[in-house]
Amino acid sequence: xxxxxxxxxxxxxxxxxxxxxxxxxxxxxxxxxxxxxxxxxxxxxxxxxxxxxxxxxxxxxxxxxxxxxxxxxxxxxxxxxxxxxxxxxxxxxxxxxxxxxxxxxxxxxxxxxxxxxxxxxxxxxxxxxxxxxxxxxxxxxxxxxxxxxxxxxxxxxxxxxxxxxxxxxxxxxxxxxxxxxxxxxxxxxxxxxxxxxxxxxxxxxxxxxxxxxxxxxxxxxxxxxxxxxxxxxxxxxxxxxxxxxxxxxxxxxxxxxxxxxxxxxxxxxxxxxxxxxxxxxxxxxxxxxxxxxxxxxxxxxxxxxxxxxxxxxxxxxxxxxxxxxxxxxxxxxxxxxxxxxxxxxxxxxxxxxxxxxxxxxxxxxxxxxxx
Length: 371
Prior knowledge:
Blueprint: H1 3-18, E1 23-25, H2 31-39, E2 45-47, H3 56-59, H4 63-69, E3 74-80, E4 87-90, E5 97-101, E6 103-108, H5 109-117, E7 124-127, H6 150-156, E8 162-168, E9 174-177, E10 181-189, E11 191-197, E12 207-218, E13 223-228, E14 234-238, H7 249-255, H8 257-261, E15 266-271, E16 275-278, E17 283-289, E18 296-304, H9 309-319, E19 322-323, E20 331-332, H10 361-364
Parallel strand pairs: 1-2, 5-12
Antiparallel strand pairs: 2-16, 3-6, 3-7, 4-5, 8-18, 9-17, 10-16, 10-18, 11-15, 11-17, 12-13, 12-14, 19-20
């Protein structure tokens, strides 16, 4: 497919449905308003004053409170050398890229929090196990917030499939990805900075297949080792880095003209006390800024998406071979969704066996990305 038809779609979606910015609501919507104005239109929004009644909003920014409440808890700590996990990094053996996952180790919560608040030079720690971890590893905090978002649950007709807790510092960020979930993302401390692109922009993401790898960390040496998975497994992932390193800007722009020369992504900052509705299948890149406690905390609720005509439409759009008008010599042939990521029966999946990394039930709910 040549570019004009697809490229005009990117603009028309913004003109007809999305506008130029993400809507902000100053109070909780009614279920019918949320369903009509946002879920049915696959349109994000930010809701203020939606979690002002949570005790955690005032309690969790204090490290002493969390360390006391979770003093006996063993939690899944994700470790990387640079804050990039579920991301593309140089291949350890060849001049190419691979998709790498973090080293995960069970750690007493007070020790994990200390590594986040006072990061050593050689590693970045992040609490982000995406397997309904809030209701398993952090059960002691359940009375400090809601078990679900009532108006969202009524609008969506179900309770959340998973509730996850995220605690990290400014060094961790998430590469572009999408999820097959309706996501209600509540920030409790600090800020989250999102870049958002609608599903219709899929051809701008340069999705390619990369060999899967994983970090292995030695506490004795303090060193990381990057190990390719065996047998070899390939992960479809977005190749775009929206924040290229200084000096590499022109090179990145020339490699990914559809992203850098197309419509600007929606940029939103979600502050403590606010909730972002992130619709299913929207691409998002996330960075964060810590609050006064030295960390950012968020709770997100994953609700099952409807596999309806929108799902069929976006799958069809993604499957179209596409050749950019910016560079007619390089066809943009996107990877089709394959494996667990594509099938409704594998609902708990993101880019491959979901933002998931193994075939066991616990990992099936895991979200690829340090959001």
